[in-house]
Amino acid sequence: MPRPRILTTRRWPEAVERQLADRFDLVLNEGDRPMSAEDFRAAFREFDAICPTVTDKLGPEAFAVDNPRTKILGNFGVGFSHIDVDSAKRHGMIVTNTPDVLSECTADIAMTLMLMVARRAGEGERELRGGEWSGWRPTHMIGTKVSGAALGIIGFGRIGQAMAHRAHFGFGMKILVQNRSAVAPAVLAHYGATQVASVEDLLPQCDFVSLHCPGGAANRHLINAGRLGLMRPDAFLINTARGEVVDEAALAAALAARRIGGAGLDVFEREPAITPALLDCPSLVMLPHLGSATRTTREAMGFRVMDNVVAFFDGQPPADRVA
Ligand code: 8YV
Hints:
Elements: E1 5-8, H1 14-23, E2 25-28, H2 37-46, E3 49-51, E4 72-74, H3 85-90, E5 94-96, H4 103-118, H5 121-129, E6 150-154, H6 158-171, E7 174-178, H7 185-190, E8 193-195, H8 199-202, E9 208-211, H9 225-228, E10 236-239, H10 248-256, E11 262-265, E12 284-286, H11 295-313
Parallel strand pairs: 1-2, 1-3, 3-4, 4-5, 6-7, 6-9, 7-8, 9-10, 10-11, 11-12
Helix pairs in contact: 1-11, 4-6
The structure holds 2-keto-D-gluconic acid.
Protein backbone atom coordinates (compact mmCIF):
# COMPACT_ATOMS: atom_id res chain seq x y z
CA MET A 1 0.00 0.00 0.00
CA PRO A 2 1.51 3.40 -0.94
CA ARG A 3 1.79 5.79 1.95
CA PRO A 4 -0.86 8.56 2.03
CA ARG A 5 0.34 11.69 0.28
CA ILE A 6 0.13 14.69 2.58
CA LEU A 7 0.67 18.43 2.20
CA THR A 8 1.45 20.85 5.03
CA THR A 9 0.61 24.30 3.70
CA ARG A 10 3.13 26.24 5.86
CA ARG A 11 6.39 25.26 7.56
CA TRP A 12 5.72 23.49 10.87
CA PRO A 13 7.95 22.89 13.90
CA GLU A 14 10.80 20.66 12.76
CA ALA A 15 10.08 17.88 15.25
CA VAL A 16 6.59 17.48 13.81
CA GLU A 17 7.69 17.66 10.18
CA ARG A 18 10.22 14.88 10.90
CA GLN A 19 7.60 12.56 12.38
CA LEU A 20 5.12 13.30 9.62
CA ALA A 21 7.79 12.47 7.04
CA ASP A 22 8.44 9.12 8.77
CA ARG A 23 4.80 8.15 8.55
CA PHE A 24 3.57 9.74 5.30
CA ASP A 25 4.62 10.74 1.80
CA LEU A 26 4.98 14.34 2.99
CA VAL A 27 5.28 17.44 0.82
CA LEU A 28 6.28 20.66 2.56
CA ASN A 29 5.57 24.18 1.41
CA GLU A 30 9.30 24.92 1.30
CA GLY A 31 8.85 28.64 0.60
CA ASP A 32 6.37 29.01 3.53
CA ARG A 33 4.18 31.35 1.47
CA PRO A 34 0.35 31.29 1.83
CA MET A 35 -1.30 29.30 -0.95
CA SER A 36 -3.82 30.72 -3.45
CA ALA A 37 -7.21 29.25 -4.40
CA GLU A 38 -5.58 27.96 -7.59
CA ASP A 39 -2.82 26.26 -5.58
CA PHE A 40 -5.50 24.55 -3.51
CA ARG A 41 -7.46 23.34 -6.53
CA ALA A 42 -4.26 21.67 -7.77
CA ALA A 43 -3.47 20.30 -4.29
CA PHE A 44 -6.95 18.79 -3.92
CA ARG A 45 -6.24 16.66 -7.02
CA GLU A 46 -2.84 15.53 -5.74
CA PHE A 47 -2.99 14.92 -1.99
CA ASP A 48 -4.87 12.48 0.25
CA ALA A 49 -4.66 14.91 3.18
CA ILE A 50 -4.03 18.65 3.36
CA CYS A 51 -3.06 20.33 6.63
CA PRO A 52 -3.90 24.03 6.41
CA THR A 53 -3.60 26.99 8.78
CA VAL A 54 -5.41 30.26 9.37
CA THR A 55 -3.52 31.88 6.46
CA ASP A 56 -5.18 29.54 3.94
CA LYS A 57 -8.35 31.10 2.61
CA LEU A 58 -10.25 27.95 1.80
CA GLY A 59 -13.42 29.54 0.41
CA PRO A 60 -15.76 28.10 -2.26
CA GLU A 61 -13.34 29.15 -5.02
CA ALA A 62 -10.59 26.91 -3.63
CA PHE A 63 -13.01 23.97 -3.54
CA ALA A 64 -14.16 24.44 -7.17
CA VAL A 65 -12.69 21.15 -8.34
CA ASP A 66 -14.23 17.88 -9.55
CA ASN A 67 -13.49 14.58 -7.82
CA PRO A 68 -10.75 15.73 -5.44
CA ARG A 69 -8.34 13.13 -4.08
CA THR A 70 -8.25 14.84 -0.65
CA LYS A 71 -10.23 13.08 2.07
CA ILE A 72 -9.23 15.01 5.18
CA LEU A 73 -8.28 18.59 6.08
CA GLY A 74 -6.22 18.41 9.27
CA ASN A 75 -6.30 22.02 10.35
CA PHE A 76 -3.34 23.32 12.37
CA GLY A 77 -5.27 25.53 14.79
CA VAL A 78 -8.44 25.44 16.84
CA GLY A 79 -10.28 28.09 14.80
CA PHE A 80 -11.38 26.99 11.34
CA SER A 81 -13.46 29.89 10.07
CA HIS A 82 -11.01 30.15 7.13
CA ILE A 83 -12.36 26.82 5.82
CA ASP A 84 -15.67 26.70 3.96
CA VAL A 85 -16.92 23.65 5.80
CA ASP A 86 -19.99 23.24 3.54
CA SER A 87 -17.76 22.90 0.46
CA ALA A 88 -15.52 20.43 2.30
CA LYS A 89 -18.56 18.35 3.27
CA ARG A 90 -19.93 18.45 -0.26
CA HIS A 91 -16.69 16.81 -1.42
CA GLY A 92 -16.90 14.27 1.41
CA MET A 93 -13.80 15.72 3.12
CA ILE A 94 -13.68 15.66 6.88
CA VAL A 95 -12.20 18.54 8.87
CA THR A 96 -10.30 18.32 12.17
CA ASN A 97 -8.84 21.01 14.44
CA THR A 98 -6.44 21.26 17.44
CA PRO A 99 -8.35 22.15 20.64
CA ASP A 100 -6.99 22.08 24.22
CA VAL A 101 -3.28 22.32 23.48
CA LEU A 102 -3.33 26.08 22.82
CA SER A 103 -5.83 27.21 25.47
CA GLU A 104 -3.26 28.23 28.08
CA CYS A 105 -0.94 30.11 25.70
CA THR A 106 -3.85 31.93 24.05
CA ALA A 107 -5.19 32.97 27.46
CA ASP A 108 -1.66 34.08 28.37
CA ILE A 109 -1.64 36.38 25.34
CA ALA A 110 -5.08 37.76 26.25
CA MET A 111 -3.71 38.52 29.75
CA THR A 112 -0.62 40.08 28.17
CA LEU A 113 -2.77 42.41 26.07
CA MET A 114 -5.02 43.24 29.02
CA LEU A 115 -2.08 44.15 31.24
CA MET A 116 -0.25 46.00 28.47
CA VAL A 117 -3.19 48.19 27.52
CA ALA A 118 -4.36 48.85 31.09
CA ARG A 119 -0.87 49.72 32.32
CA ARG A 120 0.09 51.52 29.09
CA ALA A 121 3.08 49.25 28.52
CA GLY A 122 3.16 49.80 24.75
CA GLU A 123 3.03 53.56 25.12
CA GLY A 124 5.67 53.45 27.85
CA GLU A 125 8.05 51.37 25.81
CA ARG A 126 7.60 53.64 22.78
CA GLU A 127 8.33 56.69 24.94
CA LEU A 128 11.46 55.13 26.38
CA ARG A 129 12.84 53.86 23.07
CA GLY A 130 12.03 57.24 21.51
CA GLY A 131 14.32 58.92 24.04
CA GLU A 132 11.36 60.91 25.35
CA TRP A 133 11.26 59.78 28.99
CA SER A 134 11.95 62.76 31.23
CA GLY A 135 11.95 60.68 34.42
CA TRP A 136 9.62 59.56 37.20
CA ARG A 137 6.81 61.81 38.40
CA PRO A 138 3.59 61.08 40.31
CA THR A 139 1.41 61.96 37.34
CA HIS A 140 3.33 60.14 34.64
CA MET A 141 1.54 57.67 32.34
CA ILE A 142 -1.24 56.80 34.75
CA GLY A 143 -3.02 53.59 33.86
CA THR A 144 -5.89 51.46 35.13
CA LYS A 145 -5.74 48.92 37.96
CA VAL A 146 -6.41 45.39 36.74
CA SER A 147 -6.51 43.51 40.05
CA GLY A 148 -10.05 43.32 41.41
CA ALA A 149 -11.67 44.83 38.28
CA ALA A 150 -14.66 43.31 36.45
CA LEU A 151 -13.84 41.15 33.43
CA GLY A 152 -16.49 40.14 30.90
CA ILE A 153 -15.72 37.01 28.92
CA ILE A 154 -17.64 36.45 25.69
CA GLY A 155 -17.46 32.74 24.81
CA PHE A 156 -16.81 30.45 27.75
CA GLY A 157 -15.16 27.47 26.09
CA ARG A 158 -11.70 26.15 26.89
CA ILE A 159 -9.84 29.40 26.18
CA GLY A 160 -12.46 31.58 27.89
CA GLN A 161 -12.17 29.41 30.99
CA ALA A 162 -8.36 29.52 30.90
CA MET A 163 -8.71 33.33 30.85
CA ALA A 164 -11.15 33.22 33.78
CA HIS A 165 -8.70 31.03 35.70
CA ARG A 166 -5.90 33.55 35.33
CA ALA A 167 -8.10 36.57 36.03
CA HIS A 168 -9.95 35.12 39.02
CA PHE A 169 -7.21 33.20 40.81
CA GLY A 170 -4.30 35.43 39.81
CA PHE A 171 -5.85 38.90 39.80
CA GLY A 172 -8.96 38.55 41.98
CA MET A 173 -11.13 39.82 39.14
CA LYS A 174 -14.90 39.62 39.15
CA ILE A 175 -15.90 37.42 36.20
CA LEU A 176 -19.01 37.87 34.05
CA VAL A 177 -19.71 35.44 31.26
CA GLN A 178 -21.76 35.52 28.08
CA ASN A 179 -22.02 32.21 26.25
CA ARG A 180 -24.34 30.69 23.62
CA SER A 181 -25.41 27.87 25.92
CA ALA A 182 -25.90 27.75 29.68
CA VAL A 183 -22.63 27.09 31.54
CA ALA A 184 -22.84 24.45 34.28
CA PRO A 185 -23.34 26.10 37.70
CA ALA A 186 -20.35 24.20 39.14
CA VAL A 187 -18.08 25.60 36.39
CA LEU A 188 -19.29 29.16 37.01
CA ALA A 189 -18.88 28.69 40.78
CA HIS A 190 -15.29 27.48 40.31
CA TYR A 191 -14.34 30.84 38.75
CA GLY A 192 -16.68 32.87 40.95
CA ALA A 193 -18.39 33.79 37.66
CA THR A 194 -21.89 34.99 36.82
CA GLN A 195 -23.46 34.22 33.45
CA VAL A 196 -25.51 36.99 31.87
CA ALA A 197 -28.18 36.57 29.18
CA SER A 198 -26.72 38.67 26.37
CA VAL A 199 -23.76 40.68 25.13
CA GLU A 200 -25.89 43.79 25.77
CA ASP A 201 -26.25 42.79 29.42
CA LEU A 202 -22.55 42.11 29.79
CA LEU A 203 -20.89 45.15 28.22
CA PRO A 204 -22.06 47.94 30.55
CA GLN A 205 -20.97 45.99 33.63
CA CYS A 206 -17.31 45.42 32.69
CA ASP A 207 -13.98 47.18 33.09
CA PHE A 208 -12.46 44.70 30.61
CA VAL A 209 -14.14 42.63 27.90
CA SER A 210 -12.25 39.68 26.42
CA LEU A 211 -13.47 37.82 23.32
CA HIS A 212 -13.15 34.02 23.22
CA CYS A 213 -15.98 33.01 20.89
CA PRO A 214 -15.51 31.37 17.47
CA GLY A 215 -15.15 33.49 14.33
CA GLY A 216 -17.08 32.91 11.12
CA ALA A 217 -20.28 34.36 9.72
CA ALA A 218 -22.33 33.88 12.90
CA ASN A 219 -20.08 36.17 14.96
CA ARG A 220 -18.97 38.62 12.25
CA HIS A 221 -18.94 42.13 13.77
CA LEU A 222 -20.41 40.85 17.03
CA ILE A 223 -18.65 43.89 18.44
CA ASN A 224 -19.91 46.76 16.28
CA ALA A 225 -20.39 50.50 16.79
CA GLY A 226 -23.61 50.01 18.75
CA ARG A 227 -22.10 47.52 21.16
CA LEU A 228 -18.89 49.52 21.57
CA GLY A 229 -21.25 52.30 22.65
CA LEU A 230 -22.54 50.06 25.46
CA MET A 231 -19.07 49.70 26.97
CA ARG A 232 -18.03 51.94 29.84
CA PRO A 233 -16.07 54.96 28.57
CA ASP A 234 -12.98 53.76 30.46
CA ALA A 235 -13.33 50.04 29.63
CA PHE A 236 -10.95 47.97 27.50
CA LEU A 237 -11.67 45.46 24.72
CA ILE A 238 -9.37 42.46 24.18
CA ASN A 239 -9.57 40.23 21.09
CA THR A 240 -7.58 37.01 20.78
CA ALA A 241 -10.44 35.16 19.04
CA ARG A 242 -10.85 36.07 15.37
CA GLY A 243 -10.48 39.42 13.63
CA GLU A 244 -13.92 39.30 12.04
CA VAL A 245 -15.60 39.34 15.47
CA VAL A 246 -14.77 43.06 15.79
CA ASP A 247 -15.71 45.77 13.28
CA GLU A 248 -12.23 47.28 13.01
CA ALA A 249 -13.43 50.56 11.48
CA ALA A 250 -15.93 51.02 14.32
CA LEU A 251 -13.25 50.18 16.89
CA ALA A 252 -10.82 52.68 15.37
CA ALA A 253 -13.55 55.36 15.49
CA ALA A 254 -14.41 54.53 19.13
CA LEU A 255 -10.72 54.67 20.13
CA ALA A 256 -10.11 57.93 18.24
CA ALA A 257 -13.13 59.57 19.91
CA ARG A 258 -12.07 58.09 23.30
CA ARG A 259 -15.45 56.42 23.65
CA ILE A 260 -13.69 53.45 25.31
CA GLY A 261 -10.50 53.32 27.37
CA GLY A 262 -8.48 51.23 24.95
CA ALA A 263 -8.10 47.87 23.23
CA GLY A 264 -5.71 44.98 22.74
CA LEU A 265 -5.79 42.98 19.52
CA ASP A 266 -3.96 39.80 18.55
CA VAL A 267 -6.17 39.12 15.52
CA PHE A 268 -7.39 41.30 12.66
CA GLU A 269 -10.14 41.38 10.06
CA ARG A 270 -7.85 41.17 7.03
CA GLU A 271 -4.59 39.67 8.34
CA PRO A 272 -1.85 40.59 7.77
CA ALA A 273 -3.35 43.94 6.68
CA ILE A 274 -4.27 46.32 9.50
CA THR A 275 -7.01 48.95 9.16
CA PRO A 276 -4.77 52.06 8.80
CA ALA A 277 -6.76 54.13 11.33
CA LEU A 278 -5.82 51.62 14.06
CA LEU A 279 -2.16 52.54 13.68
CA ASP A 280 -2.97 56.07 14.89
CA CYS A 281 -4.58 54.92 18.17
CA PRO A 282 -2.19 55.23 21.14
CA SER A 283 -4.61 53.43 23.48
CA LEU A 284 -4.40 50.30 21.33
CA VAL A 285 -1.92 47.45 21.75
CA MET A 286 -1.49 45.15 18.75
CA LEU A 287 0.31 41.83 18.42
CA PRO A 288 0.79 39.83 15.20
CA HIS A 289 -1.46 36.82 15.98
CA LEU A 290 0.84 35.35 18.62
CA GLY A 291 -1.81 33.53 20.70
CA SER A 292 -0.39 30.04 20.30
CA ALA A 293 3.16 31.06 19.40
CA THR A 294 5.26 29.10 21.88
CA ARG A 295 7.47 26.16 20.94
CA THR A 296 5.63 23.80 23.29
CA THR A 297 2.22 24.73 21.96
CA ARG A 298 3.09 24.86 18.27
CA GLU A 299 4.67 21.39 18.54
CA ALA A 300 1.63 20.11 20.44
CA MET A 301 -0.65 21.56 17.74
CA GLY A 302 1.35 19.81 15.02
CA PHE A 303 1.32 16.48 16.83
CA ARG A 304 -2.41 16.88 17.43
CA VAL A 305 -2.96 17.30 13.67
CA MET A 306 -0.78 14.25 13.12
CA ASP A 307 -2.85 12.17 15.59
CA ASN A 308 -6.02 13.11 13.73
CA VAL A 309 -4.61 12.31 10.30
CA VAL A 310 -2.99 9.05 11.45
CA ALA A 311 -6.28 7.95 13.05
CA PHE A 312 -8.12 8.72 9.82
CA PHE A 313 -5.78 6.67 7.63
CA ASP A 314 -5.83 3.84 10.20
CA GLY A 315 -9.60 3.69 9.78
CA GLN A 316 -10.31 5.19 13.23
CA PRO A 317 -12.44 8.27 13.95
CA PRO A 318 -10.13 11.30 14.43
CA ALA A 319 -10.55 12.71 17.95
CA ASP A 320 -10.97 16.32 16.85
CA ARG A 321 -13.41 16.05 13.96
CA VAL A 322 -15.35 19.32 13.56
CA ALA A 323 -17.05 18.55 10.22
C1 8YV B 1 -3.07 29.51 15.35
C2 8YV B 1 -5.26 30.35 16.28
O1 8YV B 1 -1.72 29.70 15.46
O2 8YV B 1 -5.57 28.05 16.65
C3 8YV B 1 -6.05 29.09 16.31
O3 8YV B 1 -7.26 29.17 16.02
O4 8YV B 1 -5.81 31.39 16.20
C4 8YV B 1 -3.78 30.43 16.31
O5 8YV B 1 -3.35 30.33 17.61
C5 8YV B 1 -3.49 29.68 13.94
O6 8YV B 1 -4.85 29.76 13.79
C6 8YV B 1 -2.97 28.53 13.12
O7 8YV B 1 -3.80 28.19 12.07
